[in-house]
Fold this protein.
Amino acid sequence: MIWFRKKDTAGLDAPRAAGGRVARDRDVSNNEVFGRWTEGIARGMGTPWFLLLLSVFCLAWLIWNTVAPDGWRFDSAALGFTALTLILSLQASYAAPMILLAQNRQDDRDRVQIEQDRQRAERNLADTEFLAREVVALRLAIKDLPDRDFVRAELRALLAELAAEDDADDRDADATGDAGRADAR
């Protein structure tokens, strides 16, 4: 019997993960959940409350293993509080990678935000340049338009012309009226 290797059913557009296997949505969602979980822990470790509680825990540990009766002690001061040292080393060995992971994820988010800000700035610059060109075009168009003083002067000239025509019409009417009266005599 011939055994065939199962082919990846994903197309060429699916990204390959480390090791050459095709990344699945499930992997991405699991990584996202794990990343959020580690960010939550790293965020918690960066608070004053965590430092206060860790200090109280260590102080209680040291006092208990120093003052308590010998039968009740579980970590010897003579051996340098070995169990406490191991616990704190274990906590530090997990905290450092979690903090780095959270920092890397924040760097990725910052990189995406910077790219979006750059694109937004490019759009704003293009919009500003377009508006500046439009303002210049409007200024040039306004220069060709008559201003208020020009319009007033033109209106005054028209009024004067109309008044002159009106006076001429009145004189003509008076002249024709005088001529008609002279013919009637």
About this structure: Residues 111 and 117 are 10 Å apart (CA to CA). The first helix runs from residue 25 to 45. The chain is about 75% helix and 0% strand.
